[in-house]
Design brief:
This protein is of the alpha+beta class. The chain folds into two domains: 1-83, Arc Repressor Mutant, subunit A (Orthogonal Bundle); 86-139, 2-Layer Sandwich (Dna Ligase, domain 1). It has six helices and six strands; from the N terminus they run ααβααββββαβα. The chain has helices at residues 5-8, 18-29, 36-45, 52-64, 105-117, 134-137, and strands at 34-35, 68-72, 78-82, 89-93, 99-102, 128-131. α2 crosses α3 (36-45) and α3 (36-45) packs across α4. The longest helix is centred in the middle third of the chain and has 13 residues, at 52-64. The N and C termini lie far apart (68 Å).
Length: 139
Amino acid sequence: MRPNSAEALPTSAPRSTRQKRAVAQLLGELDVFRSAQDLYAELRRRGERVGLTTVYNQLRTMSESGEVDVIRTEDGESLYRLCGSGHHHHVVCRSCGLTIEVEGPELESLAARLASKYHFSEVTHTFEIAGLCSTCACV
């Protein structure tokens, strides 16, 4: 028996909209973290009809689903980049934005030890290292 179209559609899957596809495509072309405003400006430059609020909403949704990584700058601005696979951390150049994904077994162990020591459960964590890459440090 063939299910009707309403039964065939998963109820929890987010819709793929034109705006989400445009944001995802742009992020796929970048290898550095970018702000929502930067992404919005580039989408508009390319002729995409998208609002800044929509870009923020798409980035939030993509972040919540694990599709994009988010880091915060020293002044609190969120920057976004397509996510690599699995749990990882970042080393980010403050000047040019070069980003390297790293796995850190020592960090995972430290997070577990601290959570246990202070009786925390269901712990998540992020760890970012910001500095200057060798190219920017020599300028």
